[in-house]
Amino acid sequence: MSLRCGALAGVLLLSGKAWAGPAVDHHMHVHSPAILDILPAYCASPMRKSPCDPRFTAPLTVDDALKAMDEAGIRKGWLMSTAYLAESPLAESRPDATLVLRKANDFTVGLARRRPDRLAAFVSVNPTAPDALAEIARWRGDPAVTGLKLHLTNSGVDLRDPEQATKLAAVFRAAAVNRWTIMIHMRTAAADYGARDVGVFLDQVLPAAGDTPVVIAHAAGWGGIDAVTLDALSAFADALGRDPRFGRHLRFDLAQVFTEKTTAEDRTAMAQLIRRIGPDHFVAGSDWPFSGDLKRYYAKAYGGADLSPTEWAVILAAQP
């Protein structure tokens, strides 16, 4: 995969210096009506370990997303379907789960069809669900679909389970047949998630993607920086150091990685790993609407002394 660097857009001010926002936000969400309908039951589920963030449940629209992009000078957004929530084991199973999944993906693709100049649609599935491969096949050949979004935590995937790893690899293979970019929230619910899971992913799952671009969301975590995220990303850095071929089609997004809660120590540790892997292997993302105001988010999260202005410019301009 060649790295295409586009023009930087939207000048932001950070610490008295001019910083450019990204031309593309690689990680955004707009819930479909079908998903908004099931969110109350999902969020109330006793199987969830924490309450839903109010920003997650807010009935925001694509117009809200486009307005936020306009104000931040962002030309295009990668719009991730949240259809996978219909089949999440974190809530009671639904007899209409497949129908909700399809409606949610239809909605996201429909938005990209109406605004192909601004939005790129990523359909989503639970990779271990019985209907995952059929849903991917349903969209084969549709030019309005850019990629596939997978969320291992919400889908209850255990990378250490050989059967589940095999199913995930099959989904990667199907996405590659469709010539889709794959965006994967790879962190699982395992308390000791880290290098062991990265090893399974690199050995058993990533090869199924072939030359398809793969983006690991949240720098291999789930937002923020903690010990297991750093352990996982360090394992990727070690693997790329041993065999750079792993990195030919592999990128990481920085959506919600640097937040107001990030300590100086964690920020430095993350910056060191970004340098080890190479800033050109990282892309900008916000996880909107979790980010709030996009202009403010990029001004506060993307910049600072841990990486040089040149390194930040590479990240902000990078596209898989």
Give an overview in words.
The chain is an alpha/beta fold. It has a single domain (4-319), classed as Metal-dependent hydrolases (TIM Barrel). The chain is built from eleven helices and twelve strands. The protein has helices at 33-44, 54-57, 62-72, 97-114, 132-138, 162-177, 195-205, 227-242, 264-277, 294-301, 309-317, and strands at 4-5, 9-14, 17-21, 24-29, 76-80, 119-124, 145-151, 181-185, 214-216, 250-253, 282-283, 318-319. The strands form three sheets. The chain has an eight-stranded parallel sheet. A two-stranded antiparallel ribbon has the order 1-12. Strands 2-3 form a two-stranded antiparallel ribbon. A hairpin with a 2-residue loop joins strand 2 and strand 3. Helix 8 runs parallel beside helix 9. The termini are close together. The relative contact order is 0.15.
Indicate the topology:
Layout (H helix, E strand, L loop, with lengths): L3 E2 L3 E6 L2 E5 L2 E6 L3 H12 L9 H4 L4 H11 L3 E5 L16 H18 L4 E6 L7 H7 L6 E7 L10 H16 L3 E5 L9 H11 L8 E3 L10 H16 L7 E4 L10 H14 L4 E2 L10 H8 L7 H9 E2 L1
Parallel strand pairs: 4-5, 5-6, 6-7, 7-8, 8-9, 9-10, 10-11
Antiparallel strand pairs: 1-12, 2-3
GO molecular function, one term: hydrolase activity
GO biological process, one term: secondary metabolic process
Pfam families: Amidohydro_2
Care to give the gist of this entry?
The chain has helices spanning 33-44, 54-57, 62-72, 97-114, 132-138, 162-177, 195-205, 227-242, 264-277, 294-301, 309-317, and strands at 4-5, 9-14, 17-21, 24-29, 76-80, 119-124, 145-151, 181-185, 214-216, 250-253, 282-283, 318-319.
